[in-house]
C-alpha cells in the first residue's frame, strides 16, 4: 500500500478514512438532491443518479460540446488560479475507433515532448445514452484543464529537471491532483449548474469507497459480494461498473488508494500553508509550488510546500 500512497498509513487507518469521507459528503448529496431531484433520501438520490434516463446524454454531439465548453471555461479562469500555465494547449478529441467501445469515459494524452502535438483530452462518444450529464464536467476538469493537462504539460516544460522526473508516474501525486481539481473547479466557478456539481460527489464517493473496499478485501477479510454491496449502498455507480471496479481492486492491490489519499494530502498541505502564511498565502503560488517539481511522492511534496510556506 505504501508503494501507491507514499504515506505511512495502516490498512485499518485507510479503511476508516474512507468511511469518514463517505459520511462527510452525505449532506452534500442531500442538499443537491433537494434542489435538483426534489428528494433528500440518499437511497433515492443514488438510484435516480444511477438509472434516470433524463440525466443521460442523447447524442454524441452533446457529449463533445459539453466537454469543449467546460474546457473553454477552465482555460479562461486558469490565469486567476495559476501563475504559470503550459505553453502547450489542451484540445478535446473523441476517442478514436477502433477500441472506443471498450475504452474508459475519458483519458488524457500529454503533449509531445518536442512540441509537435498538444495535450489531448480524449472523450468517449460511444453509446451516448449511457453517459451521465452530471459527471461530464468533473471529468473534464480532472482529465484536462486544470487537471492532468496543467500537471503533466508543465512537468514536461520544467528546466533543469531530469527526463525521468519530468515524465515519471507517481500515481498518488498524478491522480490525487486530478481529483483535487474536480473540487477546485467548483472553487473556480467552472460548473454550469447544480446537476453538474453532482459529478463532484459521484466521483468523490467512488474514490472514497475505494479506500473502504480495497482495504476490506485485502486486510479485513471482505468477500467480493461485500465489496459490491458496499458500493451499491454508498454511491450512485451502476452495478456493472461497480463489479468491474471491484474485480480491478482484487487483482491490483493498493492502486485504487492513490486517488483519494492524494487529493486529501494536497488539500491538507494547502490548509497547512494557509495557517503558516496567513495573509501572505497566495493560491497561485501554492499551485505553482505543487506543480513545480514534476511528479513526486507525497512526503517529498510536503517538504516542498513547507519550504515554500516558510520562506
Helix content class: 55-70%
Q: Total helix count?
A: 15
Rg of Cα set = 19 Å
Mean pLDDT figure = 96
Q: Kindly, what is the distance between the CA atoms of the first and last residues, rounded to a whole number of angstroms?
A: 33 Å
Strand composition percent: under 5%
Count the strands? 3
| Low confidence ranges | none
The side-by-side strand order for the widest beta sheet comes to: 1-3-2
Please give the domain count. Answer: 1
Describe the structure.
The chain is mainly alpha-helical and about 300 residues long. It has one domain (about 1-55, about 130-145, about 160-310). Helix content is about 60%, strand content about 5%. The protein is built from 15 helices and 3 strands. It has helices spanning about 1-5, 10-25, 25-35, 40-50, 60-75, 135-145, 150-155, 165, 170-185, 195-220, 225-235, 240-250, 260-275, 285-290, 300-310; strands at about 90-95, 105-110, 120-125. A 3-stranded mixed β-sheet has the order 1-3-2, covered by helices on one side. It starts with a helix and ends with a helix. The mean pLDDT is about 95.
Entry keywords:
about 300 residues, mainly alpha, 3-stranded mixed beta sheet, 15 helices, 3 strands, about 5% strand
Q: What's the arrangement of secondary structure elements?
A:
Elements: H1 2-5, H2 11-24, H3 26-37, H4 42-51, H5 60-77, E1 90-94, E2 106-109, E3 119-123, H6 133-143, H7 148-156, H8 163-166, H9 171-187, H10 194-219, H11 224-234, H12 239-251, H13 258-277, H14 283-291, H15 298-310
Parallel strand pairs: 1-3
Antiparallel strand pairs: 2-3
